[in-house]
Amino acid sequence: MLILISNPALSQVDESDSNFREFKGKVIGTLGEPLVAQTVMIKGTQIGGQTDLDGNFCLLLPKGLTVYIEIPLLNYDTFREIKPTDESIVIELKKKQNKSSRVVKNWKKRSSDLTRQLQELYKSEEFKKADKKICR
User: Cα 28 vs. chain centroid, distance in angstroms?
Assistant: First the structure.
């Protein structure tokens, strides 16, 4: 007979030995309702996740690097800048404005260098190891 005991203290994620960190968020509609099964992508990569039944998502982000995330929905403003000090975000979907936001302008300035950096990081063995432990 095998008895498995779960200890919440042991299941805590230890990010200290990794260059990646857990980043959590929630996607809601204009009335505050959680949006289920929405794709959340890290710009410049093919890395992303989906929201759960409560609109929550978790991404594995590089430590010390500002990244940009997007929820690919037409006619909605879903582009966000995530700084290294940000721990979580709530994204309320709003209709897209015609003007380009500061965040989009920042992305355009940094996109080629950042994309190269991110692609290198997400191909690393360290990412593969972190992906097995963080956001699980």
Answer: 15
